[in-house]
């Protein structure tokens, strides 16, 4: 069986450098105003539309809020498993950028394992697969001990 | 801003009828015209709130409804602002009336909705955050509602039972509304036994998508007087503000908030600014309000609105609810219609339906769900991509 090629589900939103995952954001040159995704997150009206620097956003933050989807979301979401297993989702606050960014939570973590204020870090993991490709996305993973199986 | 008069209101009952949206809008418009005792041929302007789910006739809803009523040469416009579309259509009509372009206008919105989650348009569109949030995160609308609910629990100690109590209250109101889709009275056990959709919210606490239609006949105050209506319900304020940068509350359909690293957040959050604007335009404040219709896309979001509209300080909404203040019979009933919990959402009709309910309340025509002595009412709603609205009406 041929090896599947791993590709980002959408290009240009995240990167892995030296084994560390980062979201790719935009930043106004000379100003601490950050945007994610770089080209789809509006503008600072004091500056207006402008060419943004591409920056790697902080790879650690704290959970601002969290939830899950007990039912499979509709397309364009592609369930990774059949039958569908509920996905956990967190909105994470980055201290330096002073912004909140949404993402799925790493496998094995449910809403019962999470708390507002918990520290998480960014990873890149499988979103879904087809016959030729593994499609990847960013996810948030708590930095503390993995949840026990009884959960 | 000068007032305009609400001469007539009409609705097609909410449900999952599966028929052409034009039928619902035409029925609502016909009822509103009859309620106003205005001949359709005297309407100078038709302001449609459009639907993106019913093909081209939906995109040009103003014209579609005008055609269904019989073309008369009236001027026409169709507006889209997600859930705020109905308030936008009312605002366009107000502009036409106050500029003198017409004396009387018809505002109408209706929708036929698919079952289940609202989803983005088809096709691969990675330049659309509405597409990205579904594809990359699986963040449905209820996920965003749940994030806000969980945040309330963490910040203010709200409980799932508090959220359920909102649904129980609104179901008690909706029982008395013939236009509502769900007229069953629920108790806390019913909510606790309904399946979780997005933790901590349960199925019965998340608004469904519905078919329905609503319409208003509005006019200049001068036309109303000449028409023999000396004390109409008046539109005192309409707010359709955009957020102010940096908006630091995560809201659908975005993947991230703005960054507050260079510029501190504005004094008011986006939803607080929606209410602030409508009060400023009306020359009134939260203390003047007797009754409110707010967007309970989830039970928990209704609690947020109590604070965002200034009915209580942040963190006190649960107390307002528990004390019965926001139930019919309380000091400031919220969602006497039953709210979205009893209606489900028919997007372009919903903001208009809120104004219909307040008009019935201010006229004393709300029957078993009447708020005694209501003179001032306010609506609030929210939609995707920086849309939200509030309308303040008074007698």
List the helices and strands and how they pair.
The complex is a heterodimer of chains A (151) and B (395).
Chain A: E1 5-8, E2 14-17, E3 20-27, E4 34-35, E5 53-56, E6 60-69, E7 87-94, E8 99-105, E9 119-129, E10 133-142
Parallel strand pairs in A: 1-10, 8-10
Antiparallel strand pairs in A: 2-3, 3-4, 3-5, 6-7, 6-9, 7-8, 9-10
Chain B: E1 4-15, H1 21-36, E2 45-49, H2 55-59, H3 61-69, E3 75-79, H4 85-98, E4 104-111, H5 129-137, H6 141-156, H7 160-174, H8 188-192, E5 196-198, E6 201-202, E7 211-219, H9 221-226, E8 233-239, H10 270-282, E9 291-294, H11 299-308, H12 317-322, H13 339-343, H14 347-363, E10 376-383, E11 387-394
Parallel strand pairs in B: 2-3, 2-4, 9-10
Antiparallel strand pairs in B: 1-7, 1-8, 4-7, 5-6, 8-11, 10-11
Helix pairs in contact in B: 1-3, 4-14, 7-11
- Beta strand count of chain B: 11
Uncertain runs of chain A are: none
CATH class descriptor name of the largest domain in chain B: Alpha Beta
Give the N-to-C terminal Cα separation of chain A: 35 Å
Helix % of chain A is under 10%
Oligomeric state: heterodimer
* Strand line-up across the major sheet of chain A: 6-7-8-10-9
Mean pLDDT of chain A: 95
Q: Give the strand content of chain A.
A: over 45%
């Amino acid at each position: 069986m041929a090896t599947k090629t791993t590709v980002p589900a959408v290009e240009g939103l995240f990167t892995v450098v030296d084994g560390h995952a980062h979201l790719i954001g935009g930043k106004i040159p000379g100003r601490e105003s950050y945007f994610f995704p770089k080209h789809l997150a509006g503008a600072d009206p004091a500056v207006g539309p402008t060419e943004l620097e591409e920056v790697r956003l902080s790879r650690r933050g704290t959970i601002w809020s969290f939830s899950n989807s007990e039912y499979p979301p509709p397309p364009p979401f592609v369930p990774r498993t059949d039958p569908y297993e509920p996905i956990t989702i967190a909105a994470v606050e980055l201290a330096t950028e002073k912004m909140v960014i949404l993402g799925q939570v790493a496998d094995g973590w449910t809403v019962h394992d999470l708390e507002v204020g918990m520290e998480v870090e960014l990873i890149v993991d499988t979103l879904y697969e087809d016959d030729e490709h593994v499609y990847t996305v960013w996810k948030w993973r708590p930095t503390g001990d993995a949840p026990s199986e009884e959960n | 801003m000068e007032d305009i008069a609400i001469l007539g209101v009409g609705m097609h009952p909410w449900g999952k009828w599966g028929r052409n949206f034009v039928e619902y809008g035409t029925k609502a418009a016909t009822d509103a015209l009859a309620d106003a005792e205005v001949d359709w041929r005297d309407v100078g302007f038709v302001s449609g709130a459009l639907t993106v789910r019913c093909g081209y006739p939906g995109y040009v809803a103003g014209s579609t409804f005008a055609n269904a009523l019989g073309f008369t040469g009236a001027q026409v416009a169709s507006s889209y602002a997600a859930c705020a579309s109905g308030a936008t259509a009312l605002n366009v009509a107000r502009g036409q009336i106050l500029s003198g372009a017409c004396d009387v206008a018809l505002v109408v919105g209706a929708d036929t909705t698919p079952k289940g989650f609202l989803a983005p348009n088809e096709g691969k569109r990675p330049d659309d955050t509405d597409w990205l949030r579904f594809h990359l995160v699986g963040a449905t609308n209820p996920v965003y509602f749940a994030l806000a609910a969980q945040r309330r629990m963490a910040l203010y100690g709200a409980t799932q039972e508090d959220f359920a109590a909102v649904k129980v209250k609104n179901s008690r109101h909706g029982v008395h509304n013939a236009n509502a889709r769900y007229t069953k009275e629920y108790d806390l056990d019913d909510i606790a036994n309904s399946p979780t959709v997005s933790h901590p919210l349960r199925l019965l606490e998340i608004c469904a998508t519905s078919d329905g239609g609503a319409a208003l006949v509005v006019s200049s105050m001068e036309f109303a007087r000449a028409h023999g209506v000396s004390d109409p319900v008046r539109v005192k304020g309409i707010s359709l503000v955009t957020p102010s940068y940096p908006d630091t509350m995560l809201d659908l359909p975005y993947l991230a908030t703005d960054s507050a690293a260079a510029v501190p957040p504005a004094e008011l959050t986006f939803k607080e600014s929606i209410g602030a604007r409508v009060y400023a335009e009306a020359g009134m404040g939260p203390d003047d309000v007797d009754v409110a219709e707010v967007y309970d896309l989830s039970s928990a979001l209704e609690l947020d609105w109590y604070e965002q509209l200034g009915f209580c300080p942040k963190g006190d909404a649960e107390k307002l609810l528990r004390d019965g203040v926001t139930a019919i019979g309380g000091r400031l009933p919220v969602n006497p219609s039953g709210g979205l919990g009893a209606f489900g959402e028919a997007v372009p009709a919903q903001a208009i339906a809120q104004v219909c309910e307040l008009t019935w309340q201010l006229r004393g025509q709300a029957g078993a769900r009447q708020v005694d002595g209501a003179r001032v009412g306010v609506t609030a709603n929210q939609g995707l991509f920086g849309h939200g609205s509030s309308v303040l009406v008074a007698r």
